Amino acid sequence: MISQLFVLSPRGDTIISREYRGDAVKGTSEIFFRKAKFWKGDAPPVFNLEGISFVHIKKGSLWFVVTTKFNVSPSMLIELLERVTTYIKDYCGVLSEESIRKNFTLIYELLDEMIDYGYPQLMATDELKVHIRSEPVVVKRPPPRSVAERIGFGRRTARADATTRTTLSSKGSSGKNEIFVDILERLRVLFNAEGYVVNSGVEGCIQMKSFLSGNPPLELAVNPDLVIGAENRSSGGFLLDDATFHECVDLSNFEGERVLGIKPPDGEFVVMNYRMSCDFRAPFRVLPHIEEVSPYKLEFTLKIRADIPPKNYGTHVIVKFGVPRAATAVVPTVEAAAAPPPAASGGIRARAAAAAAAAGAGSGAAAERLQIAEFDSKAREVVWSIKKFQGGREVTLKTSITLSSPSAGSARKEVGPIGVDFEIPMYNVSGLQVRYLRIIESAKGYKPQRWVRYVTQASSYVSRC
Question: Which member of 46, 181, 292, 456 lies 3.0 to 4.6 Å from 74 by CB, making a disulfide possible if both were Cys?
Fold first, then answer.
């Protein structure tokens, strides 16, 4: 089975390391980090060096890695790492470098109970809880470091407090019976240069975190016309290509009534994973246009339209695109939106500083309108940040690119592709809905609280130029 498990920081420092078999060579973590850091593109989740197999996942900026010298199923090791990260988050409240450093004693306890001599043992939160003695150290959210973060950039949708509460102390300390349900969807969309969708898909899940005393059984109802399986496409209704369910889910009433019976375990778990590849309305339409002003100058105009209802909005929208290698000067300019309030003068950075000052003085209106566009000379790309992108609006970025040599048409091909990252709260493209969440509990005075949230994010949202 596995020889060792270790957790590395973004700098390559070893935060957690556990040897299980004693057959690993010295400096394994340094070997892995050096190879993965300088890999062309992203390192594959599994690779072999000198007879040692490295299997890893990346959560945030942290590397979670196991090594083995045996012919072990890679998918099983990836699932093992996923569960390790889930349980660390359940018991520590937050999965971050600071949280791991402050709770290393607790994490070593978890690893000792979960894995013995390289073999997985206890893999359930309620089973582990009996054996854990250390109390978690709750880590507060760090203060914003940059001007962009202070005025709101880099901050995604406000999280439910369940994401920072630990499984060990939540029920006793809060005194609340609560259950949190998240419908999360990640979009994969590819546009051509004319703005039409070439390929698209949705990967989604229904995720729960339960803080109900006694773990009472639940009933969760979804769309009554839900159809699973491409072979059932002709039957009409709301179609998913496929779906998988957690082992705690009872499907006896699902076929007829589309109701899931759930006996929730402690901690966070995924009730249902699903996939959809049929057509859907892309939330953001990307429209690029390149004009060759002269042999030494290009004008790149990028329009993005929010094709979502006006009541919804995108947050933390980040747009990136590459520029030609011969570019010597790149000047991005944000144009006013379709119906914008008056913009402050003094350039992009001046507007950022002014908005930060206004936010600090108690005026949030300026920060809500803010956009920032700048050229990253090291990465050779333009980064355009939009704090809040309201549905139905259109924004435009014009970028002037000066070249060191005549383009002869070749420089146009080096612009792009355009990548878009975003998050849309209380919105999903698939149409999957939770009709009701029923808690089956007969005791008097039992007043649980239910929280349901929809979140849509970009997984791979790319447009060709």
Answer: 46
Alpha helices in 119-221, H assignment, sequence order: 125-129, 147-150, 170-174
Task: Assign residue 355 the CATH number of its domain.
Answer: 2.60.40.1170
The answer to whether residue 163 sits within a structural domain is no
Same domain, 113 and 188: no
d(CA 437, CA 243): 19
- 16, 26, 31, 69, 146 from 22: Cα distances, Å: 16, 10, 17, 11, 44
Cβ–Cβ < 8 Å for 206, 428: no
Tell whether 402 and 381 lie within a shared domain.
yes
Pick the closest to residue 99 from 65, 138, 61 (CA basis): 138
The count of domains in the chain is 3
Question: Tokens 């809060």 belong to which residue?
Answer: 174
Q: What is the pLDDT of residues 259-292, one digit of tens each?
A: 999 988 877 889 999 999 877 889 999 999 998 8
User: Which CATH number do you get for residue 40?
Assistant: 3.30.450.60
Q: What is the pLDDT of residues 369-409, one digit of tens each?
A: 578 999 998 889 999 999 999 999 999 999 999 988 887 67
Residue 338: burial class (beta carbons within 10 Å; 0-12, 13-18, 19+): exposed
Question: What does 40-93 look like in DSSP terms, one character per residue?
Answer: SSSPPSEEEETTEEEEEEEETTEEEEEEESS---HHHHHHHHHHHHHHHHHHHS
The mean per-residue pLDDT over the stretch 79-84 comes to 92
In this structure, what DSSP letter does residue 10 have?
T
Rounded Cα distance, 96 and 88, in Å: 10
394 with 404, same domain?
Answer: yes
Same domain, 329 and 236: no
Q: Is residue 289 part of a domain?
A: yes
Residue 127: other Cβ atoms inside 10 A = 14
Tokens of 91: 């018991």
CA 289, chain centre distance (Å): 30
pLDDT for res 237: 64
Domain residues for 205?
176-280+427-463
Distance of CA 297 to the CA centre of its chain: 37
Residues 309 and 393 in one domain: yes
- Give the confidence band of 350 by pLDDT, cuts at 50, 70, 90: very low
pTM: 0.69
Q: Do 217 and 276 lie in a common domain? A: yes
Q: Is 78 exposed, middle or buried (0-12, 13-18, 19+ CB in 10 A)?
A: middle
Helices 104-114 and 74-92, packing angle to 10 deg: 140
Q: Is 436 inside a domain boundary? A: yes
158 in any annotated domain = no
pLDDT the model gives residue 27: 87
